């Protein structure tokens, strides 16, 4: 690998958790239709470098449909939905194998996560996805993520991995998304058509002008188009996560970016933690609640999670993943948070030690009813 010693891109330098999205046109050798191993090896080495610099990495990778098309010799231009799904199913196995092999050479572990739109947009399953991704990162394993294209129909798909990457970043509270693309960033108009096209290196707000610029660059090669990249940026920014668009088509594209190369940065104005707290507060259900004892109220205010032992009762109307109010036994509202259990389960485990959850519910759930990270404590008035 080139002698990479320091990170010169500020957004990368300061990020702790990074989602890298790789488009099909980068990962596939357009002559053979197979994975471009040289390109993947170089990228994996750069990912390894970032991990050694204490970053947590998640990879959102396209390529399943294109690889499957090649494998199944379905070379016609427009495929029917069921043919595309067959390609996705065939190609995904090759894609996962490719990533496993490149990471293994470097002693890195990886894991495959396939998600559908409803998995991330339904609270209960989004919570499960979040916990799985966080667990993998804790276990120093790189999540390799793609949309589950094999059964999703057009209406219920993200359809492009740009937006999927934004959504994943939002879900796991990442600080940065890098969209590695076949263009180097956002231009005021199509640089192939106009000499006056200006390169935009930083965007602080996605307004109508920026959206118009994205439409103007439609004719460029970028697979999802610039419009999907702007949509991805909006999703990321709403989660307090910055987003970079950068060219990754040549071997060493990520390396160049790390070394301070050209890119467009969409800069988040708040931290992922603050954005998450705002999101939790805005989803607060005033008619769904949990009643806790004085000891638990004190523990929550000093930054602890809510355990079953401190719970007295709850309302009967919520499911795991919903945001409920936390109320003390003397009717003070303590805050709100995302419940890891259905209300009928809480009634069964209330007042008990977490160790008894398995005996009472028949399965070993989380120790916490509301984890500290999923909670917002109101200021005492
Ligand atoms: N999920 C699709 C695939 O793996 C790609 C979607 C995209 O390119 O954005 O082929």
List the helices and strands and how they pair.
Blueprint: H1 10-14, E1 17-22, H2 24-27, H3 37-52, E2 56-61, H4 64-71, H5 81-105, E3 109-115, H6 117-121, H7 123-138, E4 141-147, H8 161-172, E5 176-181, E6 186-187, E7 199-200, E8 202-203, H9 208-216, H10 225-238, E9 242-247, H11 253-258, E10 264-266, H12 272-282, E11 285-292, H13 294-301, E12 311-314, E13 323-328, E14 333-338, H14 343-349, H15 357-361, E15 375-377
Parallel strand pairs: 1-2, 1-5, 2-4, 3-4, 5-9, 8-10, 11-13
Antiparallel strand pairs: 6-7, 9-10, 11-12, 13-14, 14-15
Which key features would you list for this structure?
single chain; 381 residues; alpha/beta; Carbamate kinase; Archaeosine Trna-guanine Transglycosylase, Chain: A, domain 4; 2 domains; eight-stranded mixed sheet; five-stranded mixed sheet; 15 strands; binds glutamic acid
The CATH class assignment of the largest domain is Alpha Beta
Shape: globular
- The appropriate CATH architecture of the largest domain is 3-Layer(aba) Sandwich
What binds here, in terms of ligands, is: glutamic acid
CATH H-level superfamily title of the largest domain: Acetylglutamate kinase-like
Computed structural class: alpha/beta
Average of per-residue pLDDT values: 91
- β-strand percent reads 15-25%
N-to-C terminal Cα separation, in Å?
57 Å
What is the name of the CATH topology of the largest domain?
A: Carbamate kinase
Number of domains: 2
- Helical amount among residues, as a percent range? 25-40%
Sheet with the most strands, sense and barrel status: 8 strands, mixed
The arrangement of helices and strands along the chain is HEHHEHHEHHEHEEEEHHEHEHEHEEEHHE
Please compute the radius of gyration using only Cα atoms: 23 Å
Write out the strand line-up for the largest beta sheet, numbering strands in chain order: 3-4-2-1-5-9-10-8
Specify the number of helices.
Answer: 15
| Number of distinct beta strands | 15
């Amino acid at each position: 690998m080139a002698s990479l010693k320091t990170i010169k891109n500020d957004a990368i330098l300061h990020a702790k958790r990074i989602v890298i999205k790789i488009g099909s046109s980068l990962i596939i050798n357009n002559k053979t239709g197979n994975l471009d191993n040289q390109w993947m090896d170089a990228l994996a080495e750069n990912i390894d470098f970032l991990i050694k610099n204490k970053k947590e990495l998640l990879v959102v990778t396209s390529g399943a449909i294109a690889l499957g098309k090649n494998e199944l010799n379905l070379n016609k231009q427009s495929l029917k939905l069921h043919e595309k799904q067959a390609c996705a199913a065939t190609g995904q196995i090759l894609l996962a194998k490719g990533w496993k092999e490149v990471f293994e050479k470097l002693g890195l572990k990886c894991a495959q996560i396939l998600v559908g739109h409803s998995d991330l947009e339904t609270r209960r399953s989004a919570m499960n996805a979040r916990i799985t991704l966080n667990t993998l990162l804790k276990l120093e394993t790189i999540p390799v993520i793609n949309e589950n294209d094999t059964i999703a129909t057009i209406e219920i798909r993200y359809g492009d991995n740009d937006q999927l990457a934004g959504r994943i970043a939002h879900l796991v509270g990442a600080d940065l998304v890098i969209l590695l693309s076949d263009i180097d960033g956002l231009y005021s108009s199509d640089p192939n058509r106009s000499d006056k096209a200006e390169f935009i290196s930083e965007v602080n707000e996605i307004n109508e002008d920026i959206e118009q610029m994205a439409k103007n660059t439609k004719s460029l090669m970028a697979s999802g188009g610039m419009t999907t990249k702007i949509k991805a940026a909006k999703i990321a920014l709403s989660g307090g996560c910055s987003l970079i668009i950068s060219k990754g088509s040549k071997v060493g594209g990520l390396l160049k970016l790390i070394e301070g190369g050209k890119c467009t940065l969409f800069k988040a104005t708040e931290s992922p933690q603050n954005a998450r707290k705002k999101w939790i507060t805005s989803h607060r259900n005033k008619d769904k609640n949990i009643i806790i004892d004085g000891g638990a109220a004190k523990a929550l205010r000093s930054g602890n999670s809510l355990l079953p032992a401190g719970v007295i009762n709850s309302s009967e109307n919520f499911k795991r993943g919903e945001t409920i109010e936390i109320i003390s036994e003397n009717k003070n509202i303590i805050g709100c948070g995302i419940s890891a259990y259905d209300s009928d389960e809480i009634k069964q485990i209330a007042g008990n030690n977490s160790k008894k959850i398995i005996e009472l519910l028949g399965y070993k759930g989380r120790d916490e009813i509301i984890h500290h990270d999923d909670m917002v404590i109101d200021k005492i008035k």
